[in-house]
Amino acid sequence: MSFASQTKAELCRVPLARRCCAQAEAYGVLLFCNSFTHREVRIITESADFAARLPQLFRKGFRVEFDGAPAGGEGGKRAFTIAAPDKLAAVFSAFGQDPADALAHHINFAVLEEEHCRTAFFRGAFLAGGSVTDPAKRYHLELVTSHYNVSRELPVLLQEAGFRPKETTRKSNYMTYFKQSEYIEDFLTAIGAPLAAMEIMNAKLEKNLRGSVNRRVNCDAANLDKAVDAAMEQIAAIRALEKRMDLSELGDKLARTARLRVENPELTLTQLAELCDPPVTKSCLNHRLRKLMELARNG
Asked: Which residues does the UniProt record annotate as the domain Sporulation regulator WhiA C-terminal (predicted)?
């Protein structure tokens, strides 16, 4: 099951407690479904959970049954239709419309004044015309409608609820979408899918952790490369000195430092300093090695 399907399944577990919210959710479904005209309502879905919820939703909201509905257990795309004039009239009248006058749909803000009804409307819009990408791949949630006016009014409704959506067109459809993970999380939580929102948060944390680890590994690798290059350069300088002189002539401290460096080419300065007897600081050891390299250059 895709992440979008899981999200819709979670949303369909939200109880249909109030009739006003059932109407608001159905309103979102209608404005974002396949067809909502004065002749027909047609809702097509591949979600078994949404298909199970639709008859309950329309029964609760409008006290109507679908004229056409898929048989129980039918897979693939499921189509629900209403064509009877009296049923269409009941649906349209709930939103202050007459089927005969419905030339272009607008969102009737008056029926969405209550926050719980606006939330239900967003849920219906997502169930019928929404999708959300697997957060392991990228962050993207969209709501798609074929109604131009609805596409212009939805962002206003979302902004009133504290969201900042973006808009675009796709062929003959209009898309309102989010790409910021925080907005997607907040939107899904608001409409009744906190588990899906949590999954996005977890995916984001995992990506951030993986990125942090990769940066640390890359940084450590770069530092290791620098340490190896420095050690090779120091050893080359010591070998050059050995060809010209007996290192014991440099004094006990420099001679011991030179011997430790040659015998332990893989160690960092900190590790090498700890091997000194008595132990010295990293700064002290570095000073001695620089002295050896300077003698090699000037010899």
From this structure: 213-296
